[in-house]
Amino acid sequence: MAAYALRRLLSMLPVVGIVALFVFMLLHLAPGDPAAIIAGDNATPENIAQIRQRLGLDEPIWKQFLVWAASLAQGDLGRSMFWNESVATLIGQRAEPTIALACSTLVVAVAIALALGIVAAAKAGTGIDRLVMGIAVVGFSVPVFVTGYLLIFVFAIGLKWLPVQGYAPIADGVIPWLRHLVLPSAALGLAYVALIARITRATMLDVLAEDYMRTARAKGVAPVPMLLRHALKNAAVPIVTVIGIGVALLIGGVVITETVFNIPGIGRLVVDAISRRDYPIIQGVIILFSGVYVLLNLLVDLSYALFDPRIRY
Amino acid sequence: MIKFTRRTGLQGSLAAAALLAAPAIARGQARPSAARTVRAVMHGDIPTYDPIWTTANMTAYHGGMVYDTLFGIDANQQPQPQMVSRYGVSDDKLTYTFELRDGLRWHDGTAVTTADIVPSLKRWAARDGGGQHMMLRVKDIAAKDERTFSIALKEPYGLVLDVLAKTNSPLCFMMRKKEAETDPMQKIDQVVGSGPFILNLAETKPGTQYVYDRNPSYVPRSEPVSGISGGKVVKLDRVVIVNMPDAQTAVAALQAGEIDFYEVPPADFLGQLQSDPNIKIEVLNALGNVGQVRLNFLHPPFDNVKARQAMLYLVNQSDAMKATFGDSKYARTVSSYFGMGTPMENDANTDWFKGGRNVEKAKQLFKEAGYDGRPVVLMQATNIAVMSNTSQVLAQELRQAGINVKLEAMDWSNVVQRRSNKAAPDQGGWNIFITWSSGSAIGNPILLAAHAATGDKAWFGWPSDAKHEQLRDKWATAPSLDARKAVARELQQNAWDFVPQLYYGQWVQPAAMRKNIRGVIPVPEIIPWWNAEKV
Amino acid sequence: MARPDGIARTALAFARRHPTIAVGGALLLSMALVAAIAPWIAGDPRHMTPSDRLQAPSARYWFGTDSLGRDVFARTVHGARVSLAVGLSVAAASVAAGLAIGLVAGYYRRLDGWLMRPMDGLMAIPAILLAIALVSLNKASVGIVIAAIAVPEVPRVVRLVRAVVLTVRERPFVEAAVGSGSRGLKIVLRHILPSTVAPLIVQATYIMASAILVEAALSFLGAGVPPEIPTWGNMIASSRLFLARAPWTIFFPGACLALVILAVNLVGDGLRDRLDPRLARRM
Question: Closest approach of chain A CAs to the CA of C51, in angstroms?
C-alpha cells in the first residue's frame, strides 16, 4: 500500500507539469495586459511599453515559461505583479477561510446527503422518495448565488439571526466563526447535498438489488441495520468516488460563494487576479487547486481499501 | 546642526503631547477600540501601493493617507501650502522657492529634507500628465539647503502650484529619497510616507483589507481643514479599507453596521439606504464624473468629421444615464466640453444639444461622411456597469441610424489593451469605446490626457487638431481665471466642431455612511480620512 | 401504418412505462418549441426603453422589465434558445471529443499513457476556474463560453468511454472479431462503439444540465456570453441587485432554469434506469 501511494504521488508530477504548461500558455497567449492595468487610465502607450519591459513581459514566451518553471520546480510560486508579496504569502493569508468553508460544507453536506439518499433508497418508489429526490433536483437546479442571496435576505436582513457577510477567523472565537459559516455553507452545500443524495440513492438501489442483499432480507435481517451495515458499506466505494469528484465542484462553488458572502478566500484572490491579469497569482492558485484535487483523489483511491477488503494495493 | 537638533527637540515634545492626548495609541500595540475604528468599503481594491507607478484611483486613496503633498487644493479649488511653510516666486515669474515646514518626519522617524523632495518631484513629473506639461518649461529643480528648494522655469507658467496641489491621480506625493529614486516605470518596494496614517502591514491582507493606523507623530498644520489643505488632524485610531466587490453585500453590511462607510452605493439602492434611520447619504465629490465616448480618428467612419458630428445628434444622454442610474437626481446631461459645474463650463457652440436628439440629422451626416455599411466596432467592458450599459444603449442608437455596429464584449482589462491598437477595426483595432473621467479633470484642458489632440501622440482615439493644441497652450499660460475662461470658450467652440470625443452624461456618486460618521471632507477624486470621526 | 390514435396509444403506453422520461421529455420539447418560435411570439430581446425600467408584470410587459428597460418576457423566451443551445452544444462537443479520445486510448494501449496524462492534468484544473479564465481572457462570445464549459467535461467522458472499451474488448465477441482478422478501426467502430452509446446518452444529459448551470455561474462572475444576448444565466446575474425590488427579473429566468434542468435530469434518470444502471453512473 505504501509503495502504491508513493508511486501514485510520483505520477502526480507529470500531471502538475501539464497543468503548469497548460495554464501558462492559456494566460500568455490570451489578450489582456497587466502593464496596461498598472499604467492606469491616463497612461500613454509609451508608458505601457516601458512597464511591460520592466515586468519582463516583452521576453519571448518560451523564455518567460522557463524562468517561471525553474522557480516553480524549486517550490517558488513567484511574486504578485501588483503587491509586494510572494504568491505563497498571499495564498497563505487567504487559506483559512477557504479551507473552513470547504470543510464545513463537505462535512455537513455529506452527512445530510447520506441520510437523505439512504432514506430515499429504503423507501424507493414512495412519496418520501419522490419528495427527497424532488428536493435534490431543485437544489441542483438553483444557482448557488440565488440561494445565497435568498438566505441573506431571509436570515441576515429579515430575521437578523446571522451576519450578512464576511469571515471571522477561528482564533477570534468558535461561535463567531461558526455564525459566519452557516449561510455560506448552506448555500454552497445545497447543490452538493443534491448531488451526493442522488448518487447515494442510486448506488444503494443497485446494491439492494444484488443477490446477497435479497438473501439477507430473506434471512430476516432487520431493515435498518441491514441498510447501514451491508448496503452502505458496499455502496461506499462509488459514493466516496463521487465525493472526490465533487471536490472539483466544491472548489468551483467556493469561488462563487466567496464572492456572494465576501469571504476573503483563495477563490476571491484568483477571480480578482484574473480581471487584473496578475499572472503569477492565477498560475499559482490553479496549480495549488490542481495539486489539492489530485491529492484528494489519491486519498479517495486509497480509502477504497478501507471500505472494500477485496481491493488491495 | 544646531537647527536640526532644535527641530528634533520640538518633534519630541509634540510627540509627547500627542501621547498624552491619546493614551490608547501611546501603548502602541494595544488593539484600537472599535469606537475609533472606521471600516470603509470603496469602489474597488487597491491594486498596488505605489501611487506614482499606477494612476488607479484606489492607489491614490491609499497614497492620500500615507503620503503628504507639498500643496493641497482647498475647498475653492485654490492651491494652499501643505508641507511647505513659506514660498515665493521671483519678479520675472521664473523661479519658485519653497521652504519645508517644521515637524515633517517619515514614518521611520527620520526628518523630511529636500534630498527627498527633489527626486520625489522628478519621479512624479515623469508619470503625471500635468507634471510632464510643467516639465517642458522647467529648467531645473534644485535643493538650496536641507529645507529650501526651488523650481526654475524657462518661461512663465501659471499652473505650477495648481499642479503640485491637485487631487487627480497621480497626486504629487512626497516619498523618501530611497523610494523616490526608483525608476518611475517600476514600483517602489516599501510604503514609508510622512502622511497622517501609517499602513499597518502586519494586519493588512492585500485584496481583502488594508489597515491604516493613526500616525502618532504627525504634526498637522494649524489652519482649519479645507479640501486637502489645512491641518490634517486625525480623530480616529484606525481606518480599515475593506474590499467588498459585491454591491448588494456591501449595502447589506452597511445596514447591519458591519461597515461604516460605502463609497459607491448603486443608484437603485439609495432609496432603501435613505429610509434607514442609521444611514446618511453625502455627496463628497460634487463635480462627479463625466462619461466619455472615444471615437477612433484613424479609421472610417470617424476619421471624417461629419461622422463624429453625427454622434452628437445621435447620443441620447438621458437614456444612457437612466440605464444605469434610473431616475436618480444624481445623474444629468452634459453639454459643455468642460463638464457641468466646473469653472470652465460654458455654452459656446452647443446648438446640437439644444435641438435634442435628431436621428434623421445623424443619418444625413453619416451619409455625407460616406459611410458604406462597414462594421463599426464598439468595445463593451462588461465588468463595469456604466460602461456595459452605456455601450448597449449606444449600440441600439447606432443601429437606429443605420450603422452596422459590432458590439464586442470583453472585460475592461481587454479594453485597455485593445484600445492602444492603432490597426483597422477588422484587424484588431476598434472604432468606439466608453470610459469616464472625474468632472474636475474634464474641467481642466491640461491635466487630463484625454484632452490632448496631438494625433499619434494623443490619448486613445488619437484626435488631431492644431487649433485645439494652440488653444490649450494659450489656456495654460493665460494670466488670470477670467482669461482662462475666455480661452475655454474658444476651446469649446472649436471642440464641438471637430469633436475629439463626446459625452454620455455626468453623474455624482453619493457615498452612504452610518449616521455616527462625521466630518468626511468632500474633495474630488480621493477620500481623506483625517478630520473624520466616529461619535 | 399506425393510425393517429394508434400513435397516441403508443405514446400513452410509453409514458406509463417511463413516466420520468415522458414528463421530462415533454417539458424539454415544449421549451424547445418555445425557443424555436421565439421571434414570432416575443419582441426584440435587445430593445431597451430606459424610461420603462423595472416595471412590474403588466398587460404590456407580461414578465415586467429589467433595469435597462428590456422586456423580460422577450428575454426569457429568447433566453431559452441560448441556454438550450449552450447545453446541447456543450453536451455534443464534449461527448464527441471525449468519445474519440476515449476509444483511441482504450483500444490502442500504446497511446493510452500519452492521451490520459494530459486528460488527468485537464481534469485536475477546477472546471469553473478554467472556464472563467478562458472566457475573461478572451473576447466574450457564445462560442468561447461553449468551449470553456465543454473543455473541462472532456476528460470525464474520456474516462467513461475508456472504462467501457477496456471492459468490452475482453468480451468473447470482440476477441472473435480480432481472431477472424478484422482490422482495428473496424472493430472499434462495429463492435466497441455500440457499447458506449447507452452510458454516453445518460452522461450527455447530465453534462447538458450542468452546462446550463455553469453558464449561469459564469455570467454571475461576469465571464459569460455578451450581456446583449439574453440567457437565463446572465439575466439572473445582471438582475441580482434587484432581487428584493424587482423579483420578477429573477423569478422568471430562475424558474425556467430550474425547470429545464429538472426536465433534463428527469430524462437522464429515466434513461439511466432504462439503459443500464451500472454504466450510467457518472464517473
Answer: 27
Domains and CATH numbers, chain A: 94-262+297-312 (1.10.3720.10)
Which domains are delineated in chain B? 69-179 (3.90.76.10), 289-507 (3.10.105.10)
C59 touches chain A (CB under 8 A): no
B56–A157 CB contact, under 8 Å: no
Q: Which of B272, B382, B414 sits opposite C222 (nearest CB)?
A: B382
Give chain A positions within 8 Å (CB) of C237.
Answer: 145
Backbone dihedral angles phi then psi of residue B87, each to the nearest 5 degrees: -155, 160
Length of chain A: 313
Query: Tens digits of per-residue pLDDT, A104-155?
Result: 988 888 888 888 888 888 887 788 888 887 788 777 777 787 788 778 778 8
User: Which B-chain residues 404-463 have CB contacts (< 8 A) with chain A?
Assistant: 410-414, 416-418, 420, 435, 437, 448-450, 457, 459
Residues from chain B contacting residue A279 (CB–CB below 8 Å):
none
Find out whether B213 and B237 touch, Cβ atoms under 8 Å. Answer: yes
- A15, three cell numbers: 500531471
Distances (CA, A) of C271 to A201, C19, C28, C199: 16, 11, 14, 9
Q: What angle do CA C34, C39, C42 make, to 5 degrees?
A: 80
Residue B240 in 3-state DSSP? strand
- Name which of B222-226, C30-34, C235-239 the model is least confident about: C235-239
Q: Structural domains in chain C?
A: 50-282 (1.10.3720.10)
Beta strands in B315-375 (DSSP E): 331-332
Check CB contact of B89 with chain C, cutoff 8 Å.
no
Residues of C with CB below 8 A from A206's CB?
A: 277-278
pLDDT tens for each residue of A210-229 = 777 777 777 776 666 766 77
